[in-house]
What we know:
By secondary structure, this protein is an alpha/beta fold. It has one domain (8-190, 223-244): NAD(P)-binding Rossmann-like Domain (Rossmann fold, 3-Layer(aba) Sandwich), CATH 3.40.50.720. The protein has helices at residues 17-28, 41-53, 68-82, 107-134, 147-150, 156-176, 193-196, 199-211, 221-232, and strands at 8-11, 32-37, 58-62, 87-90, 138-145, 180-187, 243-246. Helix 2 links the parallel strand 2 and strand 3. It binds NADP nicotinamide-adenine-dinucleotide phosphate. NADP nicotinamide-adenine-dinucleotide phosphate is lined by residues 13, 15-19, 37-40, 64-66, 91-95, 116, 143, 145, 187, 189-190, 192, 194-195. Residues 13, 15-19, 37-40, 64-66, 91-95, 116, 143, 145, 187, 189-190, 192, 194-195 line the site of NADP nicotinamide-adenine-dinucleotide phosphate. This is 3-oxoacyl-ACP reductase. Keywords: Oxidoreductase. One of its GO terms (molecular function) is oxidoreductase activity, acting on the CH-OH group of donors, NAD or NADP as acceptor. Belongs to the short-chain dehydrogenases/reductases (SDR) family.
Amino acid sequence: MKKFAERKVLVTGAGRGFGRALALAFAREGADVVVHYNSSAAGAEEVAGEVRALGQKAAIVRGDISSHADVLHITKTSFEALGGLDILVNNVGDMALDQVSWRQFDEKVIDHTLAVDIKGTMFMIHEVGSRMLDGAGGVIVNIGSQVVIAGSPRAPQYAAAKYGVIGLTKSYARALAPKVRVNTLGAAFMETEALKNRHDWKNGRRDEILKQTPLGRIATPEDMVGPTLFLAGDDSRHMTGQFLLCNGGLAMVGA
Ligand SMILES: NC(=O)c1ccc[n+]([C@@H]2O[C@H](COP(=O)([O-])OP(=O)(O)OC[C@H]3O[C@@H](n4cnc5c(N)ncnc54)[C@H](OP(=O)(O)O)[C@@H]3O)[C@@H](O)[C@H]2O)c1
C-alpha cells in the first residue's frame, strides 16, 4: 500500500522548484494533488499532467497567497476539487533573491517578503486549518529554512519571516490540536532553479556553503522530499509544533 493512498494534498507553489518535486512525490506515493501556482501557469499544467500520468487526480488553482481573498478562493477550490483535503504543504516562499546585500534597503521588497512568507502562510493555515478542524482533521507542513539557525546578513527580512513561520507553527499547533498537526521543515540550501540562478550563488557562495557543510554536498529538492513527507504522514503522528532541521549539518562547523 502506498504511503499516501487516498490522501488529498494541496501543495502551494507547485508549478516549479521544490513545490513541483513535492507534488510529484506525493502523487508517486498515491495521493491526489491540488497544484497551486501564482505565475507559473505552464509549469502547473505540466505538473498536473504528470500527477495524472501517475494515476492520481490532479486539480490546479491560481492565487497570490498574500491576498486573503485569493486564499479564500484557493481554499474553497481545493476542497471542492478533491472533495476535502488531508494535507496542506505551505511551500510558497519569497526568498528576496534579487537582494544581494542588507544595504540594499527597500521598504517595498521588505513588505513583499513579509506579506508572502508570514501573512500568506498565516492566511493559508487559518483557512485550510479551520476547514480541517471542522472536518476530519489533517496535517499542515510549512516549508521553513535553515536560515533561522544563523540569520541572513544578505536579506534579514527573509530570516525574520522564516522565524515568523516558526511562531505560526507553534501557535496553530496549539490552536488546532488535536485534530490538526502543524510542523515546519528547516530546509537546506537546495539547488532549485531560483537558487542556481542567483548571482552570489554562482560567484563563490556555493563553494562557501559546501565547505561549511559536514555532509559535503549541496542538497537537491529531492533531498528535502523525504523529511517533508515524514512530517506530512503518519510516521510523525506524535509531532506537532516542531521545527525539523535538515541541512547537512551546516552551522555545526566551527562550533
Ligand atoms: N531553494 C533553497 O535554497 C531554499 C532553502 C531553504 C528554504 N527554502 C524554501 O523552500 C520553498 C521553495 O523554495 P524554491 O527554491 O522552490 O523557491 P522558488 O523556486 O523561488 O519558488 C517560489 C514558489 O513560490 C511561489 N510564490 C511566490 N510568491 C507567491 C505569491 N505571492 N503567491 C503565491 N505563490 C507565490 C511561486 O509560484 P509561481 O512561480 O507560480 O509564481 C513558486 O512556486 C520556499 O518557502 C523557500 O523559502 C528554499
